[in-house]
Amino acid sequence: MKYFLVAMAVMLLPLQLLAQVKLSGHITNATQGEALPGATVLLKEASGTATTTDQNGYYEFSNLPAGTTYTVQVTFLGFDAAERQVNLSGSRRLDIRLNPKSVRTSEVVVTATRATEKTGTTYTNVSKEEIAERNFGQDIPYLLDQTPSVVVNSDAGAGVGYTGIRIRGSDITRINVTVNGIPINDAESHGAFFVNMPDLGTSVQDIQVQRGVGTSTNGAAAFGASINMSTLGLNREAYAEALNTYGSYNTWRHSLSFGSGLLNDKFTVDARLSKISSDGYVDRAFSDLKSYYLAAGYHGKTSTLKFVTFSGVEQTYQAWNGVPEEILATNRTYNSLSYDNETDNYQQDHYQLHYSKTFGSNFDFGGALHFTRGKGYYEQYRTNRRLSNYNIAPVIIGDTTISRSDLIQRKWLDNNFYGATYAFNYYSTDRRLVTTLGGGVNKYDGDHFGEVIWAQYASTSGIRHRYYDNNAVKTDFNIYTKATYQLSQKLGLFGDLQYRTIGYSVEGLDDDRRDVTQEADFAFFNPKAGVTYALTDNQTFYTSLAVGNREPVRSDFTDQSDEDRERGIRPQAERMVNLEAGYRLRGATGGVTESTPGTRYTLDANVYYMDYQNQLVLTGQLNDVGNGLRTNIKDSYRAGIELAGALSLNDFVEFRSNLTLSRNKIRNYTETVYIYDEDYNVEGIVENEYEETDISFSPAVISAHSIEVQPVRGLKAALLYKTVSRQYLDNTSSNDRSINGYQVLDLRLRYTVKPQFMREVELALLVNNLLSKKYEANGYTWSEMYAGDPGRYDYNHYYPQATRNFLLSLGLKF
């Protein structure tokens, strides 16, 4: 296959057409002047050649034959379609302004939860084209690595399998994730596991990343950021696409997509099948991932009905133990696990039914029903385990009593998550006032249980002996109302009020055989307000103030000490007040001749302050059976400056850069370190007081920079540079328990041709970590002291990321 890909590249090089000109432009809202990212731009006479606008509303077609006349058709959700004719005697720039209309499609719920230039919120839009150029089969976090304040990591080290993302230092349990407005975060842990949605990026239309509290949305609280993904929109033309990738560590990605186009002006079908596999950088950290996507829609004159389903099946060898610090220098790919089936096995099926309806010229409605089915287990080989911990009687042979055994355990999850979301929108005739009433109700019902499938000494137990079993039920209701009002051409106001209730109950025994039966209820009010002011047509200032509340996660309840539970002491909800203020600049010049195809530039600058009350953090405290406990910290904050800019010069070179400078602090923090005797019983504790210390995993400096050049039509070469400063593994600001800062340089090459027999052929190469730096992006630690020894012992574990590696991709579009 490697030789085939190289041969294809060599054969296709001569096929580049002798196109001489390009067509580019800017798509905006005719009434408010704002850019329209994700608008579809179609050249009717070019066999359905189409593109979508980028996050700033710009589009571009390259390699078009000179002297040709085209009909340019532009469509965008909620706007009247527009057509313009243009003759390309030379390169041209064609800007088009779209008029709003009331007809909506199934994305009403999506747009209701998204930020716009009128909401005073800090956000980044990632277009379909940007996703495609970054998509070599790695997980969603890696497609967002170049967006502001983002840090990503991979257990296996190469971006396939279990991956993680932090935004402004907040991990995935504090990041709200939705697909088409439907919650994705696990109802109990609040995590979102992208390994269960392999290759979803290929079926995504666009992604909006909101930083901070953001606007009201469905599902888990956005306590640092939100990731709002929208799957494929309306494709009017039929298409087919095959993507094949091969890379280091025997990494393969095969993906086949197709769409029917608009059939009979009413029906559409889009589908995808994908398979991704990799041996991983870390020893035995393989991944075997399969997925599909299917969407079928009916598009009426005033209503739309769309069914969306996607599924992922994953098997990964566990690499979540990381590499101990003392081994890291000599064996960076070390994996402490060696049992051949030490694997994680899970399947997650998503079903969504979206309906939208237009009522006259001022109202529309969007609603969705959803159901997610998840089931799977991870298998572990364990040595010398107490049989009593598994509810297995000891084995008695004559005078010998055997109370310990080697065994294989499986820990299962079997859950159902279902509910409904809705959004009802009103638009004043002059579009100065836009209001939304929306919300959702969701229910989670999940079983947690463990089985012993083999034991060296099984006593009276049978195969698949169940040693713990508990059920959790969680209901989540929210209702919100939002409004934007344009007081004048320059000044706009935004308001957003959300009320959210949560009911959570657990019944049964957990994996440590403790009874964790309990109930908890929460009610939150989350107000938000913002102001936007247009300094000029292309410069905007905004500011917003938002309040967010977040309930504790499952482990905060189940890992509680028996004493605290008996005394009625419960983990408290967290609260955050978020202040954002920023400036946006959008501009373009030129674009009328071949020699000056145009300059485009953007600048985003914002400051933020996120003030936490009762933030839950690890302090070193343990419960009755040694599990780490999180404790509410009264006072902590994050404050920072985010800068992002882009400059495109004459279609030849493009610069992009973003920088985050931040302070992430806890005030009055107490760390607990346990002292153990020679039999490993707790003999005492040491408490260390800190007046102000750094929040773990919160680097003070994050930056991403790229330069992309197009020396000849169809060939683009890009260098991507990422920097992350030191991260602390705990909340003590100790360099002894930290991840060193790192800098990583990637190289990306893309060569695209448009032969007459197909729409497009693209050969792409991604070289990750071009300079082969050795670095770690994640880790964990714990500390102990021992009786009679004054020293402190830190046990640091790290997740090393791959040295230089590559991914080579061949894409065929029909």
Automatic annotation (TrEMBL):
<keyword id="KW-0408">Iron</keyword>
<keyword id="KW-0798">TonB box</keyword>
<dbReference type="InterPro" id="IPR012910">
    <property type="entry name" value="Plug_dom"/>
</dbReference>
<dbReference type="InterPro" id="IPR039426">
    <property type="entry name" value="TonB-dep_rcpt-like"/>
</dbReference>
<dbReference type="Pfam" id="PF00593">
    <property type="entry name" value="TonB_dep_Rec_b-barrel"/>
</dbReference>
<comment type="similarity">
    <text>Belongs to the TonB-dependent receptor family.</text>
</comment>
<dbReference type="InterPro" id="IPR008969">
    <property type="entry name" value="CarboxyPept-like_regulatory"/>
</dbReference>
<keyword id="KW-0472">Membrane</keyword>
<feature type="signal peptide">
    <location>
        <begin position="1"/>
        <end position="19"/>
    </location>
</feature>
<keyword id="KW-1134">Transmembrane beta strand</keyword>
<feature type="domain" description="TonB-dependent receptor-like beta-barrel">
    <location>
        <begin position="330"/>
        <end position="770"/>
    </location>
</feature>
<keyword id="KW-0998">Cell outer membrane</keyword>
<keyword id="KW-0812">Transmembrane</keyword>
<feature type="domain" description="TonB-dependent receptor plug">
    <location>
        <begin position="117"/>
        <end position="225"/>
    </location>
</feature>
<keyword id="KW-0406">Ion transport</keyword>
<protein>
    <submittedName>
        <fullName>TonB-dependent receptor</fullName>
    </submittedName>
</protein>
<dbReference type="GO" id="GO:0009279">
    <property type="term" value="C:cell outer membrane"/>
</dbReference>
<keyword id="KW-0675">Receptor</keyword>
<dbReference type="GO" id="GO:0015344">
    <property type="term" value="F:siderophore uptake transmembrane transporter activity"/>
</dbReference>
<dbReference type="InterPro" id="IPR000531">
    <property type="entry name" value="Beta-barrel_TonB"/>
</dbReference>
<dbReference type="Pfam" id="PF13715">
    <property type="entry name" value="CarbopepD_reg_2"/>
</dbReference>
<keyword id="KW-0410">Iron transport</keyword>
<keyword id="KW-0813">Transport</keyword>
<dbReference type="Pfam" id="PF07715">
    <property type="entry name" value="Plug"/>
</dbReference>
<dbReference type="InterPro" id="IPR036942">
    <property type="entry name" value="Beta-barrel_TonB_sf"/>
</dbReference>
<keyword id="KW-0732">Signal</keyword>
<dbReference type="InterPro" id="IPR037066">
    <property type="entry name" value="Plug_dom_sf"/>
</dbReference>
